[in-house]
Amino acid sequence: MVLLLPSTSIVIFTFVTLVSSVCNLVTSDPLCPPEYLEHEIPITKEDIDMMQFAENLEHLECDLFLWSALGFGLDHVAPQLVMGGPPPIGAQKANLDFHTRKLIEEFAYQEVGHLRALKTTVGGFPRPLMDLSAKNFAMIMNEAFGYELVPPFDPYRDSVSYMMGAYVVPYVGLVAYVGTNPNLKGYVTKRLLAGLLGVEAGQDAVIRHYLYDRAGEVVHPYNHTVAEFTNRISGFRNRLAMCGIKDEGIIVPHYLGAEQRTESNVLSADINSLSYSRTPPEILRIVYGGGNESVPGGFFPHGANGRIARNFLLDQPSHN
Ligand SMILES: *[C@@H]1O[C@H](CO)[C@@H](O)[C@H](O)[C@H]1NC(C)=O
Ligand SMILES: *[C@@H]1O[C@H](CO)[C@@H](O)[C@H](O)[C@H]1NC(C)=O
Predict the structure, then answer these.
(1) Do residues 14 and 8 touch, judged by C-beta distance below 8 A?
(2) End-to-end Cα distance, the chain
(3) Which amino acids bring their CB within 6 angstroms of ligand 2?
(4) What ligand is nearest to the CA atom of residue 241?
(5) CA 170 to CA 148: how far, in whole Å?
């Protein structure tokens, strides 16, 4: 703290007031006032770590959606956002009908925007190694059902299979962002988070509605309905995260429905129909696929990047 003589303080105060009123004159628009309160903190060091954690999830969605819809990934679309990270394992174009492909293409480009917004606002790290192979999804489904599906589940096989694979991803971002919100301090990071949360929640709702429309259909060649797949995936994520029910399928018993009155469950939410919230260790337990935030695997064979995720990997240096 610098002590100033009263007269100097007044001079500085007057100068600052003058500058800000000049700025207001330049930018003020009575119809569109500034979004932020004056004199608040834009961003803090802790905010940066929390928002960088989100980059892992956005990378996962981005390459999954890009590859599935277009047959190429972030290295082709926006190589500067990759920052030298290794290419994803097993990414491929999915066998999608026209409508589904357009939907996923839009989601894919939205993720590119999210990554650009994140990396320009809080800085970034190289894309972590990600496993987007059909084999990884097949392992998730086997764990979800508790036995080995034959033939192995393949999200790239057709549109409905793909949307069930997609069901696995944006919801994790959604609940992670709800969990991040109360811990952010700066208005720049809060604004960024709310923008990401809105679109992730929208993507999740579109995927869930797509599956809800087909809830009773049997997923060939398996003897399970679409609804059962969602319930199994959600149940598996709850088991991995180890913090109770925060994830629900699209058809549920009444006690999990809205106001405990509906079996339809297009949106997964708590007793007051508020979105569930998860912490970084819960998220890592899910995306690593093994229920332990210190043991990488699943979608991130070498672990997620950034300070928060790396801190759970004792003795392991930052790694692509
Ligand atoms: C498929 O599921 C239905 C209902 O659970 C059951 O009655 C039927 O026997 C199953 N068929 C096979 C081939 O497993
Ligand atoms: C998670 O893995 C670490 C490192 O292998 C181990 O020390 C820890 O006990 C595991 N935690 C649980 C809950 O199994």
Answers:
(1) no
(2) 41
(3) 292, 294-295
(4) 2
(5) 25
What's the whole-model pTM score?
Answer: 0.88
pLDDT digits (tens, 9 = 90+) for 8-66: 333 333 333 333 443 444 467 888 888 777 778 999 999 999 999 999 999 999 999 99
Residue 27 lies in a domain: no
Nearest ligand to the CA of 297 is: 2
Q: Which residues pair with 264 in a beta bridge?
A: 251
* Domain carrying residue 291: 38-312
101 in a structural domain = yes
For 27, the token pair is 């930018």
Residue at token pair 């790290």: 125
> 225 has which bridge partners?
218
Number of domains forming the structure of the chain: 1
Ligand 1 centre to CA of 223 (Å) is 6
Rounded Cα gap, residues 290 and 309, in angstroms: 15
Let me know if residue 91 belongs to a domain. yes
Inside any domain, residue 45:
yes
Place of tokens 């990270």: 85
**DSSP assignment, residue 301?**
T
- Confidence (pLDDT) at 316: 56
Q: Given the CA of residue 292, which atom of ligand 2 is nearest to it?
A: 1
